[in-house]
UniProtKB/TrEMBL annotation:
Pfam families: ADH_N (PF08240), ADH_zinc_N (PF00107). InterPro entries: ADH-like_C (IPR013149), ADH-like_N (IPR013154), ER (IPR020843), GroES-like_sf (IPR011032), NAD(P)-bd_dom_sf (IPR036291). This is Zinc-binding dehydrogenase. The keyword Methyltransferase does not apply. It comes from Flexistipes sinusarabici. Residues 15-364 form the Enoyl reductase (ER) domain.
Length: 382
């Protein structure tokens, strides 16, 4: 029996965690043509949730509080239910969808695509931003973007931790830079969702990942497959630190999730000995947690032929590739822990003030699903 109302967390405006309102009287949405209604069991948190809430997609002088809008048909409005990396079960089918799909467990491709093309995504928006997401008991999703994953070895919370917001972004970073067999890749912010995904996908592409992270996380990153881990708190000279970490091997490409003051030193690490390289230095960036503005000497970029790739969301083809890897068991979930949906404020505080042992993803589980899908992985003290 599908209820008329559901519990959900609504973002009511830009600001602090007080803008996140837990309610139990939100109408359950109804699926339209080629859509599914899913009962949500687990939704992973992403850094973009916080950035959207705080309005941290600013103008160049950092004066505006805003989000982003890539086209006239996309963008944020309030109230909005956030949550992009959603796992659940189909409970109702809209017109044009076979009723045989009822009961399927699946993972959502979080993108709101503007075209049917598989190979490009020029105006990216996503569920939890342009449309309501998974911090709720129910959610409407496109039928062709809800991928069945039957792997019994993966719990719903673990599957949510492998969500597209991190894994698809990481894959698009690697693909944009053309990373391939035998190449060495440096990954910043390596302990987060995208970073841990990048480490694993480097191996699937035959590349060797080197991780940059904060103290206390090296063992977990080694277990995931990092060839070496650079403690960023101990680095005074990035080219020297990278050279030491790789044993003198050149870095073919940098996957940067930090930006800010790290950008130029990491480019310097790639170009310090061009004669030892076999390819152009490549730099993919998909985050700016270290700062939104970097002063770049363009003569350095063009003389050394540094190729720079800005990456946000991936493509339909990349989503299908990821689902294929997940179904084959070739990707590992990195689940840090779970919180109840009603404890969203605790989850936000924990996420922002996470400790040095934090690796992977936090997953939010509706209170009604807690015993089955959340309790086992509860964050200590939750």
């Amino acid at each position: 029996m599908i209820p008329e109302y559901m519990a959900a967390v609504q973002l009511t405006g830009h600001g602090g965690i007080e803008k996140l309102k837990y309610r139990e009287d939100v109408p359950v949405p109804q699926p339209g043509k080629n859509e599914l209604l899913i009962k949500v069991t687990a939704t992973a948190k992403n850094n973009t949730d916080r950035k959207v809430r705080e309005g941290l997609y600013p103008t160049e002088d950092n004066s505006d509080i805003t989000s982003f809008s890539m086209s006239k048909d996309s963008g944020l409005s309030f109230p909005r239910i956030q949550g992009a990396d959603v796992v659940g079960r189909v409970v109702k089918c809209g017109s044009g969808v076979s009723e045989d799909r009822v009961g399927e467990r699946g993972l959502l491709d979080f993108n709101i695509y503007s075209t049917d093309r598989d190979d490009i995504n020029l105006t990216p928006d996503y569920f939890g931003h342009g449309k309501d997401g998974g911090f709720a008991e129910y959610m409407v999703v496109p039928a062709d973007q809800f991928y069945t994953v039957e792997n019994t070895e993966l719990s719903d919370a673990e599957l949510a931790a492998m969500g597209m917001c991190s894994y698809q972004t990481g894959l698009h970073m690697l693909n944009a830079a053309g990373v391939g067999e035998g190449e060495n890749v440096l990954i910043t912010g390596a302990s987060g969702g995208v970073g841990t995904a990048l480490i694993q996908m480097c191996h699937l592409k035959g590349a060797t990942p080197y991780a940059v992270s904060s103290p206390g996380k090296a063992n977990a990153l080694f277990e995931l497959g990092a060839e070496n881990v650079i403690d960023r708190s101990k680095v005074n000279n990035w080219p020297e630190a990278v050279d030491e970490a790789t044993g003198g091997k050149p870095i073919d490409a940098v996957m940067d999730l930090v930006g800010g003051n790290m950008t130029i030193p990491l480019i310097d690490a790639m170009i310090q000995d061009m004669s030892s390289r076999k390819t152009y230095p490549r730099y993919s960036i998909a985050g700016a947690s270290g700062g939104n503005v970097t002063k770049i000497l363009w003569t350095k970029i063009y003389l050394y032929q540094v190729q720079i790739f800005g990456v946000s969301h991936g493509t339909r083809a990349e989503a299908k590739q990821l689902i294929n890897w997940i179904r084959k068991g070739e990707l590992k979930p990195v689940l840090h822990g779970t919180f109840r949906l009603s404890d969203i404020h605790k989850a936000e505080d924990y996420f922002v003030n996470r400790s040095n042992n934090f690796v992977g993803k936090i997953v939010i589980v509706p209170d009604s699903e807690w015993e089955d899908h959340g309790k086992k992985y509860a964050v200590s003290g939750e």
